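Moderator note: this is an archived Q&A kept for reference. The question asked for a predicted structure of one protein chain; the sequence and the answer are reproduced below.
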Amino acid sequence: MHNFLNAQRLLLLTNIKGVLDKNGKILTSLSPEDVDNLIKDGTIYGGMIPKIAGALDAVKAGLRSATIVDAEFLMRVYWKFLLMKELVLRFLK
C-alpha cells in the first residue's frame, strides 16, 4: 500500500498522551519485542493495541517510520504555529 501512495511515514492520532510505561512516563521508541512484552504485562491494552499493530505492520512493510501522537497535543502545536504571524503567510478574502 505504501508504494501505491508513495508514503514514507505513517501518522496515527489518538486521544490519549501516548504509550505510557508503568510509571506513567511516555515511551518514545519501541521495538517489536518491547511491544510484545508490554502487551503481555498489561502496559499496552485496549484501543492502543491495534494502533501499535498497524504502526509495526507499516514499518515492516517498508515505511521509514510510524508515529502515534496525541491529536489534542498536535492541534495545540498547530494552532500556536498558525498564530505566529511572522511565520505564516495568510490569504484573506
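Archived answer notes: The mean pLDDT is 84.
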